[in-house]
UniProtKB/TrEMBL annotation:
The keyword Acyltransferase applies. InterPro entries: Acyl_CoA_acyltransferase, Diverse_Substrate_AcTransf, GNAT_dom. Transmembrane segments: none annotated. SUPFAM superfamilies: Acyl-CoA N-acyltransferases (Nat). It comes from Aquincola tertiaricarbonis. Keywords: Acyltransferase, Transferase. It comes from the Bacteria. This is GNAT family N-acetyltransferase.
Amino acid sequence: MRLLMAADVVAEVAADVVVRAAGPADAAVLSRLCAAHAAYEHIHHDGAGHAERLAQALHMHRLRIWLGLRGGEPVGYASATLDFSTLDAQPFVHLDCLYLEPAARGQGMGRALMAAVAQHARDIGARQLQWQTPPWNALAIGFYDALGARRLDKCRYTLAV
């Protein structure tokens, strides 16, 4: 399978890789993958009501998620929201999460998920994707560099309100 990442980047992936849009009915599977993602990044994850909140966000179209399947089994996901850059005065797609189970890495699934998100961005008229990754995640940084993404030096903050 050939996937268009950007105007000049094509990814080859295995025939048993399927990426599809997730819906509210996928919330339990997605919640499991989110918990694994949080554990991988060593961040707190409260699973209470998580699947229900995901299902509601998907139902309300506040969030887009793509589920990555290999041999019919869910092994990863990408999630994104539409945002707006004040500095560019343009909409962009914020890639909130990209996660693959360890056994699924390095086999084209990440590229397939990124291609799905990139196509969504093109389809809705966004000019770019933006995301962040922890500075210790050398595998992700190498992957994003190989895609041709431009790295920005910024710190990410959160503030409970």
